[in-house]
Amino acid sequence: MTTTQSAPDPDDLRALAVRVATEAGELAAQGQEGITVLDTKSSPTDVVTEMDRATEELIRSRLLAERPGDAFLGEEEGGDEAGTAPVRWIVDPIDGTVNYLYGSPDWGVAIAAEVDGQVVAAAVAQPGRGRSYEAVRGRGAFLDGERLVAPEAVPLERALVATGFGYVPERRRHQARVLLGLVPGIRDIRRTGSAAVDLCGLASGQCNAYYERGLNPWDWAAPGLVAAEAGLRVAGARGGPPSEDLVVAARPELFEELEPLLLELGADRDE
After folding, report:
1. So what CATH class is 156-265?
2. pLDDT computed for residue 2 by the predictor
3. Which of 247, 258, 264, 237 is nearest to 157 (CA)?
4. Does 59 appear as a known binding residue?
5. How far apart are CA 271 and CA 262, in angstroms?
6. Is 81 annotated as belonging to a binding site?
7. What is the pTM for the complete model shown?
8. What is the side-by-side strand order in the sheet with 209-212?
9. Where, in this chain's numbering, is Mg(2+) bound (predicted)?
10. Domains 10-147 and 156-265 in one fold
11. CA separation (Å) from 269 to 72, 106, 166, 170, 239?
12. What are the per-10-residue average pLDDT scores of the chain (271 residues)?
């Protein structure tokens, strides 16, 4: 029998997300040393570890114990459509699994609360960097309790742009061609290997823009809200919402310069 309950204030959802992301990050951090590949997904380079699954299970159990009528969508085990549930939790237990596997600190635990198809609260824990990001729609984004305001836009030629690559060779080949077309017109490129790290880093001024093709909702849901609440435009191609086709994030002025160039270069397609 499904439990019926109304959605609480987004601040309550944020507090729950922060608490669970912190606990999950501690679990994952304790298990990082000596971790090995458990399985692969879309390609031999798209790996999953035992801790990805253990961390997702911890998150699922904590959230649904607190709110048993909610829906859950996780990267490793999938989950539910929102249906009539008051909240759908969208979770990436370890975003940046390859970094995690190699002992890098650049990975994060991302938890978003979605109500009526809109992400209203988010938490991103980055234990390896000692950072905790959180956001509530319309109420701002915060890093370790301090309000985040993304730096002002710079011209495209002075922009430090973060991006990532897919795991299928054909997609990577085309993404490399897009990059070759983009690099001459910007300051430089950064590649951390984690969408959560990139989007939260963009919000805190570690780069000026971000784009990537091939992301899933758990990749952008939580960090995308952090970035948006810090004053960034986070969208897809041609005025659409973020999607697997393309996610672009930047201050609005820079977004207007970058997005048309990316579309001209074919960043929203594989060939």
Report:
1. alpha beta
2. 46
3. 258
4. no
5. 13
6. no
7. 0.93
8. 188-190, 160-163, 209-212, 247-250, 233-235
9. 75, 92, 94-95, 219
10. no
11. 29, 27, 12, 11, 16
12. 63 98 96 74 62 93 96 86 90 94 95 97 98 98 97 97 94 96 98 97 98 97 98 96 97 98 97 80
- Which residue's structure tokens are 């970058």? 258
Homologous superfamily assigned to 10-147: Fructose-1,6-Bisphosphatase, subunit A, domain 1 (3.30.540.10)
Per-residue pLDDT, 1:
38
Residue type, 211: Y
SS3 category, 169: helix
State yes or no: 11 annotated in a binding site.
Answer: no
Q: Is 9 annotated as a binding residue?
A: no
CB 56 within 8 A of CB 63: no
Domain limits, the chain: 10-147, 156-265
Please state, in angstroms and rounded to a whole number, the distance separating the CA atoms of residues 58 and 150.
32
DSSP 183: G
* Ligand-binding site membership of 12 (annotated): no
Cα(32)–Cα(90) distance, rounded to whole angstroms? 23
